[in-house]
Amino acid sequence: MWTSRSFRIFDVERMNKGVFTLSLDFELIWGTLDLFGPDGFRSACEREREVIIDRLLALVEEFQIPATWCIVGHLFLDRCDGEHKDIVRPNHAWFPRDWFAFDPGSDAEKDPIFYGRDLVEKILACPVRQEIGSHSFSHVIFSDRGCSRATAESELRACVKAAREMGVEMRSFVFPRNEVGHLELLGEYGFRCYRGPEPHWYEKWPGPVRRLAHLWDVITAAEPPVVLPLRTEAGVWNVPGSMIYFPMHAARRYIPMSLRVRRATRGLEAAARERKVFHLWFHPTNLADGMEEMFAGLRAIFERAAELRREGRIAFRTMSELAVEYER
Ligand SMILES: [Zn+2]
Protein backbone atom coordinates (compact mmCIF):
# COMPACT_ATOMS: atom_id res chain seq x y z
CA MET A 1 0.00 0.00 0.00
CA TRP A 2 1.24 3.46 -0.89
CA THR A 3 1.95 5.81 1.97
CA SER A 4 3.22 9.34 2.01
CA ARG A 5 6.47 7.93 3.38
CA SER A 6 7.07 5.88 0.21
CA PHE A 7 8.64 8.84 -1.54
CA ARG A 8 11.34 11.29 -0.70
CA ILE A 9 11.37 14.81 -1.93
CA PHE A 10 14.50 15.35 -3.97
CA ASP A 11 13.73 18.64 -5.59
CA VAL A 12 11.45 21.35 -4.31
CA GLU A 13 13.01 24.36 -5.95
CA ARG A 14 10.55 27.04 -6.95
CA MET A 15 9.45 27.58 -10.49
CA ASN A 16 9.55 31.06 -11.94
CA LYS A 17 5.77 31.13 -12.34
CA GLY A 18 2.73 29.08 -11.45
CA VAL A 19 1.49 26.18 -13.55
CA PHE A 20 -1.97 24.96 -14.49
CA THR A 21 -2.16 21.24 -15.27
CA LEU A 22 -5.33 19.46 -16.37
CA SER A 23 -5.56 15.68 -16.40
CA LEU A 24 -8.51 13.64 -17.59
CA ASP A 25 -9.26 10.01 -16.76
CA PHE A 26 -10.82 8.69 -19.94
CA GLU A 27 -12.37 5.28 -19.45
CA LEU A 28 -15.93 5.13 -20.90
CA ILE A 29 -17.59 2.11 -19.19
CA TRP A 30 -14.35 0.51 -17.95
CA GLY A 31 -14.12 2.66 -14.83
CA THR A 32 -17.33 1.38 -13.28
CA LEU A 33 -17.79 -2.06 -14.83
CA ASP A 34 -16.62 -3.99 -11.75
CA LEU A 35 -18.93 -2.01 -9.43
CA PHE A 36 -22.05 -1.28 -11.46
CA GLY A 37 -21.89 -3.58 -14.50
CA PRO A 38 -22.32 -2.50 -18.12
CA ASP A 39 -25.61 -0.66 -17.51
CA GLY A 40 -24.83 1.40 -14.41
CA PHE A 41 -23.34 4.33 -16.32
CA ARG A 42 -24.34 3.37 -19.84
CA SER A 43 -26.25 6.54 -20.69
CA ALA A 44 -23.52 8.76 -19.19
CA CYS A 45 -20.94 6.94 -21.32
CA GLU A 46 -23.10 7.31 -24.40
CA ARG A 47 -23.28 11.07 -23.83
CA GLU A 48 -19.52 11.08 -23.24
CA ARG A 49 -19.05 9.40 -26.58
CA GLU A 50 -21.55 11.42 -28.55
CA VAL A 51 -21.08 14.90 -27.12
CA ILE A 52 -18.70 15.37 -24.21
CA ILE A 53 -15.36 14.49 -25.83
CA ASP A 54 -16.05 16.80 -28.81
CA ARG A 55 -17.07 19.68 -26.56
CA LEU A 56 -14.08 19.17 -24.27
CA LEU A 57 -11.72 19.16 -27.21
CA ALA A 58 -13.31 22.35 -28.56
CA LEU A 59 -12.89 23.96 -25.15
CA VAL A 60 -9.22 23.02 -24.66
CA GLU A 61 -8.55 24.21 -28.21
CA GLU A 62 -10.28 27.54 -27.58
CA PHE A 63 -8.26 28.15 -24.40
CA GLN A 64 -5.04 26.61 -25.79
CA ILE A 65 -4.83 24.07 -22.97
CA PRO A 66 -2.58 21.03 -23.44
CA ALA A 67 -4.46 18.50 -21.30
CA THR A 68 -3.16 15.07 -20.26
CA TRP A 69 -5.64 12.37 -21.25
CA CYS A 70 -4.96 9.20 -19.28
CA ILE A 71 -6.80 6.56 -21.26
CA VAL A 72 -7.86 3.00 -20.43
CA GLY A 73 -5.89 0.83 -22.87
CA HIS A 74 -8.95 -1.04 -24.10
CA LEU A 75 -10.16 2.24 -25.60
CA PHE A 76 -7.25 2.25 -28.05
CA LEU A 77 -9.03 -0.70 -29.70
CA ASP A 78 -11.89 -0.59 -32.16
CA ARG A 79 -12.65 -4.29 -31.79
CA CYS A 80 -11.55 -7.35 -29.77
CA ASP A 81 -12.39 -11.02 -29.27
CA GLY A 82 -13.27 -10.44 -25.61
CA GLU A 83 -10.68 -12.89 -24.32
CA HIS A 84 -7.55 -10.85 -23.59
CA LYS A 85 -5.51 -13.92 -22.78
CA ASP A 86 -2.41 -11.76 -22.31
CA ILE A 87 -3.93 -10.17 -19.20
CA VAL A 88 -3.18 -12.03 -15.96
CA ARG A 89 -6.57 -11.82 -14.24
CA PRO A 90 -6.81 -9.86 -10.99
CA ASN A 91 -8.60 -11.45 -8.03
CA HIS A 92 -10.55 -8.51 -6.69
CA ALA A 93 -12.76 -9.75 -3.82
CA TRP A 94 -15.67 -7.53 -4.93
CA PHE A 95 -15.69 -9.04 -8.43
CA PRO A 96 -15.72 -12.85 -8.25
CA ARG A 97 -16.33 -13.33 -12.00
CA ASP A 98 -13.79 -13.42 -14.80
CA TRP A 99 -12.37 -9.92 -15.09
CA PHE A 100 -13.47 -9.66 -18.73
CA ALA A 101 -16.92 -11.20 -18.15
CA PHE A 102 -18.66 -8.05 -19.42
CA ASP A 103 -16.35 -7.55 -22.40
CA PRO A 104 -18.68 -7.99 -25.41
CA GLY A 105 -15.88 -9.18 -27.70
CA SER A 106 -17.34 -7.17 -30.55
CA ASP A 107 -16.57 -3.77 -32.04
CA ALA A 108 -17.10 -0.04 -31.63
CA GLU A 109 -20.18 0.02 -33.77
CA LYS A 110 -22.03 -2.64 -31.77
CA ASP A 111 -20.76 -1.74 -28.32
CA PRO A 112 -19.49 1.83 -28.48
CA ILE A 113 -19.00 2.28 -24.72
CA PHE A 114 -16.29 -0.43 -24.66
CA TYR A 115 -14.12 0.84 -27.54
CA GLY A 116 -12.70 4.26 -28.29
CA ARG A 117 -10.13 4.26 -31.07
CA ASP A 118 -12.04 6.90 -33.05
CA LEU A 119 -12.10 9.15 -29.98
CA VAL A 120 -8.37 8.68 -29.36
CA GLU A 121 -7.84 9.72 -32.98
CA LYS A 122 -9.86 12.88 -32.34
CA ILE A 123 -7.75 13.71 -29.30
CA LEU A 124 -4.58 13.16 -31.34
CA ALA A 125 -5.94 15.43 -34.08
CA CYS A 126 -6.63 18.35 -31.71
CA PRO A 127 -4.77 21.42 -33.09
CA VAL A 128 -3.58 22.21 -29.55
CA ARG A 129 -1.33 19.25 -28.81
CA GLN A 130 -2.81 16.99 -26.15
CA GLU A 131 -0.81 14.46 -24.16
CA ILE A 132 -1.95 10.85 -24.26
CA GLY A 133 -1.17 8.89 -21.11
CA SER A 134 -2.39 5.65 -19.58
CA HIS A 135 -5.07 4.68 -17.08
CA SER A 136 -4.10 0.95 -17.17
CA PHE A 137 -5.49 -1.49 -19.74
CA SER A 138 -8.75 -2.58 -18.12
CA HIS A 139 -9.04 -0.53 -14.91
CA VAL A 140 -7.56 -3.11 -12.53
CA ILE A 141 -7.07 -1.71 -9.01
CA PHE A 142 -3.29 -1.69 -8.57
CA SER A 143 -3.17 -1.22 -4.78
CA ASP A 144 -5.50 -4.14 -4.06
CA ARG A 145 -4.05 -7.43 -2.86
CA GLY A 146 -5.90 -9.09 -5.73
CA CYS A 147 -3.64 -7.30 -8.20
CA SER A 148 -0.38 -9.26 -8.29
CA ARG A 149 2.81 -7.97 -9.81
CA ALA A 150 2.12 -10.26 -12.79
CA THR A 151 -1.33 -8.72 -13.25
CA ALA A 152 0.04 -5.19 -13.04
CA GLU A 153 2.80 -6.01 -15.54
CA SER A 154 0.38 -7.59 -17.99
CA GLU A 155 -1.85 -4.51 -17.80
CA LEU A 156 1.07 -2.15 -18.42
CA ARG A 157 2.43 -4.26 -21.26
CA ALA A 158 -0.99 -4.44 -22.95
CA CYS A 159 -1.68 -0.71 -22.77
CA VAL A 160 1.78 0.23 -24.02
CA LYS A 161 1.30 -2.18 -26.94
CA ALA A 162 -2.18 -0.86 -27.79
CA ALA A 163 -0.94 2.76 -27.72
CA ARG A 164 2.12 1.95 -29.84
CA GLU A 165 -0.13 0.48 -32.48
CA MET A 166 -1.55 4.00 -32.79
CA GLY A 167 1.93 5.51 -32.81
CA VAL A 168 1.67 6.83 -29.26
CA GLU A 169 4.45 6.58 -26.66
CA MET A 170 3.04 7.23 -23.21
CA ARG A 171 4.84 9.01 -20.37
CA SER A 172 2.11 9.75 -17.82
CA PHE A 173 0.02 7.35 -15.79
CA VAL A 174 -3.06 7.68 -13.63
CA PHE A 175 -3.85 4.73 -11.39
CA PRO A 176 -7.44 3.45 -11.56
CA ARG A 177 -9.36 5.07 -8.67
CA ASN A 178 -6.09 6.85 -7.90
CA GLU A 179 -5.00 3.75 -5.96
CA VAL A 180 -1.23 3.69 -6.21
CA GLY A 181 0.44 0.26 -6.40
CA HIS A 182 3.37 -1.50 -8.11
CA LEU A 183 4.93 1.91 -8.59
CA GLU A 184 8.32 0.33 -9.28
CA LEU A 185 7.00 -1.08 -12.57
CA LEU A 186 6.06 2.22 -14.19
CA GLY A 187 9.57 3.23 -15.21
CA GLU A 188 10.19 -0.13 -16.88
CA TYR A 189 7.29 0.53 -19.23
CA GLY A 190 8.44 4.00 -20.20
CA PHE A 191 6.36 6.09 -17.80
CA ARG A 192 7.96 9.10 -16.17
CA CYS A 193 5.20 10.35 -13.92
CA TYR A 194 1.87 9.57 -12.33
CA ARG A 195 -0.82 11.59 -10.61
CA GLY A 196 -0.56 11.05 -6.87
CA PRO A 197 -3.41 11.60 -4.41
CA GLU A 198 -4.26 15.14 -3.34
CA PRO A 199 -2.29 16.18 -0.25
CA HIS A 200 -5.25 17.06 1.97
CA TRP A 201 -4.68 18.72 5.32
CA TYR A 202 -7.03 16.17 6.90
CA GLU A 203 -5.51 13.01 5.42
CA LYS A 204 -4.34 11.59 8.76
CA TRP A 205 -7.78 11.81 10.34
CA PRO A 206 -10.22 8.88 10.58
CA GLY A 207 -12.64 8.26 7.68
CA PRO A 208 -15.84 9.97 8.90
CA VAL A 209 -13.92 13.06 10.03
CA ARG A 210 -12.13 13.16 6.66
CA ARG A 211 -15.44 13.13 4.83
CA LEU A 212 -16.74 16.00 6.98
CA ALA A 213 -13.52 17.91 6.47
CA HIS A 214 -13.79 17.40 2.73
CA LEU A 215 -17.38 18.64 2.76
CA TRP A 216 -16.27 21.67 4.77
CA ASP A 217 -13.62 22.47 2.13
CA VAL A 218 -16.22 22.18 -0.60
CA ILE A 219 -18.95 24.33 0.97
CA THR A 220 -16.49 27.02 2.04
CA ALA A 221 -14.76 26.86 -1.38
CA ALA A 222 -11.50 26.51 0.57
CA GLU A 223 -8.29 27.04 -1.37
CA PRO A 224 -7.21 23.65 -2.73
CA PRO A 225 -3.61 22.49 -2.24
CA VAL A 226 -1.11 23.63 -4.86
CA VAL A 227 1.65 21.13 -5.46
CA LEU A 228 5.15 20.48 -6.79
CA PRO A 229 6.30 17.38 -8.64
CA LEU A 230 7.98 14.93 -6.27
CA ARG A 231 10.57 12.43 -7.32
CA THR A 232 9.77 9.01 -5.86
CA GLU A 233 12.28 6.35 -4.87
CA ALA A 234 10.91 4.35 -7.81
CA GLY A 235 12.42 7.02 -10.05
CA VAL A 236 9.15 8.27 -11.53
CA TRP A 237 7.69 11.67 -10.65
CA ASN A 238 4.56 12.14 -8.64
CA VAL A 239 2.54 15.07 -9.98
CA PRO A 240 -0.14 15.16 -7.24
CA GLY A 241 -3.68 16.26 -7.95
CA SER A 242 -4.97 19.48 -6.38
CA MET A 243 -8.69 19.17 -6.91
CA ILE A 244 -11.28 17.05 -8.67
CA TYR A 245 -13.92 18.93 -10.64
CA PHE A 246 -16.58 16.72 -9.15
CA PRO A 247 -19.79 15.71 -10.91
CA MET A 248 -23.35 16.86 -10.33
CA HIS A 249 -24.19 13.24 -9.59
CA ALA A 250 -26.42 12.07 -6.69
CA ALA A 251 -26.13 14.33 -3.60
CA ARG A 252 -23.39 16.41 -5.19
CA ARG A 253 -25.92 18.07 -7.49
CA TYR A 254 -26.99 20.18 -4.52
CA ILE A 255 -23.57 21.77 -4.32
CA PRO A 256 -23.82 25.00 -6.32
CA MET A 257 -21.62 25.30 -9.40
CA SER A 258 -20.30 28.64 -8.16
CA LEU A 259 -18.51 26.86 -5.28
CA ARG A 260 -16.71 24.50 -7.68
CA VAL A 261 -15.62 27.43 -9.81
CA ARG A 262 -14.59 29.61 -6.87
CA ARG A 263 -12.46 26.81 -5.41
CA ALA A 264 -10.71 26.19 -8.70
CA THR A 265 -10.00 29.88 -9.30
CA ARG A 266 -8.57 30.09 -5.79
CA GLY A 267 -6.30 27.20 -6.74
CA LEU A 268 -5.17 28.99 -9.90
CA GLU A 269 -4.46 32.17 -7.95
CA ALA A 270 -2.55 30.23 -5.27
CA ALA A 271 -0.45 28.57 -7.99
CA ALA A 272 0.43 31.98 -9.45
CA ARG A 273 1.21 33.46 -6.03
CA GLU A 274 3.26 30.53 -4.71
CA ARG A 275 4.73 29.52 -8.06
CA LYS A 276 3.41 26.01 -7.72
CA VAL A 277 1.12 23.72 -9.70
CA PHE A 278 -2.67 23.77 -9.62
CA HIS A 279 -3.56 20.31 -10.93
CA LEU A 280 -7.24 19.95 -11.79
CA TRP A 281 -8.64 16.58 -12.83
CA PHE A 282 -11.85 14.77 -13.60
CA HIS A 283 -13.40 12.08 -15.78
CA PRO A 284 -15.11 13.30 -18.95
CA THR A 285 -18.06 11.13 -17.82
CA ASN A 286 -18.31 13.46 -14.80
CA LEU A 287 -19.77 16.10 -17.12
CA ALA A 288 -22.73 13.93 -18.15
CA ASP A 289 -25.11 15.05 -15.38
CA GLY A 290 -25.99 18.74 -15.52
CA MET A 291 -23.87 18.94 -18.64
CA GLU A 292 -24.59 22.58 -19.55
CA GLU A 293 -23.81 23.78 -16.06
CA MET A 294 -20.71 21.62 -15.84
CA PHE A 295 -19.39 23.00 -19.13
CA ALA A 296 -20.23 26.56 -18.09
CA GLY A 297 -18.27 26.08 -14.86
CA LEU A 298 -15.32 24.65 -16.73
CA ARG A 299 -15.38 27.61 -19.13
CA ALA A 300 -15.29 30.03 -16.18
CA ILE A 301 -12.28 28.19 -14.71
CA PHE A 302 -10.46 28.19 -18.05
CA GLU A 303 -11.20 31.90 -18.53
CA ARG A 304 -9.47 32.70 -15.24
CA ALA A 305 -6.55 30.43 -16.19
CA ALA A 306 -6.20 32.17 -19.57
CA GLU A 307 -6.26 35.57 -17.85
CA LEU A 308 -3.46 34.57 -15.50
CA ARG A 309 -1.50 33.26 -18.44
CA ARG A 310 -1.91 36.54 -20.34
CA GLU A 311 -0.58 38.31 -17.26
CA GLY A 312 2.46 36.03 -17.38
CA ARG A 313 1.70 34.58 -13.95
CA ILE A 314 1.02 30.98 -14.90
CA ALA A 315 1.97 28.59 -17.67
CA PHE A 316 0.04 25.56 -18.93
CA ARG A 317 1.87 22.24 -18.79
CA THR A 318 1.01 18.59 -19.32
CA MET A 319 1.96 16.10 -16.61
CA SER A 320 4.97 14.74 -18.47
CA GLU A 321 6.20 18.23 -19.42
CA LEU A 322 6.35 18.98 -15.71
CA ALA A 323 8.27 15.76 -15.03
CA VAL A 324 10.73 16.52 -17.82
CA GLU A 325 11.28 20.08 -16.62
CA TYR A 326 11.93 18.84 -13.11
CA GLU A 327 14.22 16.07 -14.34
CA ARG A 328 16.47 18.82 -15.70
ZN1 LIG B 1 -11.95 -6.55 -25.15
Task: Please summarize what this structure is.
By secondary structure, the chain is an alpha/beta fold.
SSE diagram, text form:
Layout lengths: L17 E9 L6 H4 L5 H21 L5 E4 L45 H8 L6 E4 L14 H16 L7 E2 L19 E2 L12 H13 L10 E2 L5 E2 L4 E2 L12 H18 L2 E6 L8 H20 L3 E3 L2 H9 L1
Parallel strand pairs: 1-2, 1-9, 1-10, 2-3, 4-5, 5-7, 8-9
Antiparallel strand pairs: 6-7
Helix pairs in contact: 2-7, 6-7
The protein binds zinc ion.
Please explain how this structure is put together.
The structure is a single chain. The two termini are 30 Å apart. With 328 residues, the protein is α/β, with parallel strands linked by helices. The chain has one domain (20-327): Glycoside hydrolase/deacetylase (TIM Barrel, Alpha-Beta Barrel). The chain contains eight helices and ten strands. It is 33% helix and 11% strand. The chain has helices at residues 33-36, 42-62, 117-124, 149-164, 207-219, 257-274, 291-310, 319-327; strands at 18-26, 68-71, 131-134, 172-173, 193-194, 230-231, 237-238, 243-244, 277-282, 314-316. Strands 1, 2, 3, 8, 9 and 10 form a six-stranded parallel sheet that branches. Strand 6 and strand 7 form a beta hairpin. The radius of gyration is 19 Å and the shape is globular. Helix 2 runs parallel beside helix 7 and helix 6 (257-274) packs parallel to helix 7 (291-310). Bound molecules: zinc ion.
